[in-house]
UniProtKB/TrEMBL annotation:
GO cellular component: plasma membrane
NCBIfam families linked: urea_trans_UrtD
Organism superkingdom: Bacteria
PANTHER family: CONSERVED COMPONENT OF ABC TRANSPORTER FOR NATURAL AMINO ACIDS-RELATED (PTHR45772), HIGH-AFFINITY BRANCHED-CHAIN AMINO ACID TRANSPORT ATP-BINDING PROTEIN (PTHR45772:SF8)
Phylogenetic placement of the source organism: Bacteria, Pseudomonadati, Pseudomonadota, Alphaproteobacteria, Rhodobacterales
An MF annotation (GO) of this entry: ATP hydrolysis activity
Gene this protein is translated from: urtD
Positions of the ABC transporter domain: 5-246
SUPFAM superfamilies: P-loop containing nucleoside triphosphate hydrolases
Name of the protein in question: Urea ABC transporter ATP-binding protein UrtD
Keywords for the protein's UniProt record, in alphabetical order: ATP-binding, Nucleotide-binding, Transport
């Protein structure tokens, strides 16, 4: 296990407000990491910074074996380098089948999905099956994606990200709006994905975080308040004061 992502001393200010304040986090490969903390703690902004959507005012962020800085890279260069991100709202192509959605993601490794460029016959049925098995949608491969449940759409989008084979996958509040059974399936899926890559999950649902059974980082006011096992951080008095005791 070696360090894949190293964020050190990063700060971001929006109109004079320090949303991220001297933040340092290291993520290993492979690793499953949960990031929790109160509303406005900077969890989403952390993901915005790592994906290049928001540029920090100061600090260092290096990624990969050579420890390349991502600060000079564009969002698409960062995605090419192997950092994938799942947004809260699924962005699957609703008129296409599950199979077509996965196939499109496979044809364009780590690039933007460009349907026009990928007309060539696809022989990646094996990969499609591997991914559909991994996300639990093999029985739904020929369904139109728009007919899937909210949870199934989220899994499909995770599958489309896995098709790009990211080394680091960032997932913001995956369990929101899901049924208890869907949440459980999502936990299993993320745990499996994190066996071969780094997966960072932001989530408020503590039951969900407990089931992930991984190291937890608690953010507060843009910095790390506590880090360790869920039991360790939930016994921390600062964490109880700012997050759990509300
Ligand atoms: N583009 C922006 N411009 C101005 N302020 C912003 C911007 N993005 C985030 N913020 C502010 O930065 C702080 C951190 O926001 P962020 O969305 O990262 O919190 P969060 O931990 O993801 O919260 P939540 O749990 O509610 O999703 C908040 O006070 C937010 O209002
Ligand atoms: Mg957020």
């Amino acid at each position: 296990m070696s360090t894949l992502l190293e964020v050190s001393g990063v700060s971001v200010t929006f109109d004079g407000f320090r949303a991220i304040n001297n933040l340092s986090i290291q993520i290993a490969e492979p690793e499953l990491r949960a990031v929790i903390g109160p509303n406005g703690a900077g969890k989403t902004t952390f993901m915005d910074i790592v994906t290049g959507k928001t540029k920090p005012d100061e600090g260092r962020i290096v990624f990969g074996d050579r420890g390349d800085s991502i600060l000079g890279m564009s969002e698409s260069q960062i995605a090419q380098a192997g950092i994938g991100r799942k947004f809260q709202k699924p962005t699957v192509f609703e008129a296409q089948t599950v199979r077509e959605n996965i196939a499109m993601a496979l044809k364009n490794p780590r690039g933007p999905f460009d349907v026009l460029l990928s007309r060539k016959a696809d022989n990646s049925e094996t990969r499609i099956r591997e991914i559909s098995d991994e996300i639990g949608l093999t029985d739904a491969l020929d369904f139109q994606s728009g007919a899937l449940s909210h949870g199934q759409k989220q899994w499909l989008e995770i599958g489309m990200l896995l098709a790009q084979d990211p080394r680091l996958l960032l997932v913001d509040e995956p369990a929101a709006g899901m049924t208890p059974a869907e949440r459980e399936h999502t936990t299993e899926l993320l745990k499996r994905a994190a066996k071969t890559r780094a997966v960072v999950v932001v989530e408020h649902d503590m039951e969900f975080v407990r089931r992930l059974n991984c190291k937890v980082t608690v953010l507060h006011e843009g910095s790390v308040l506590a880090e360790g096992s869920l039991d360790h951080v939930t016994q921390n008095q600062d964490v109880i004061d700012v997050y759990l005791g509300r």
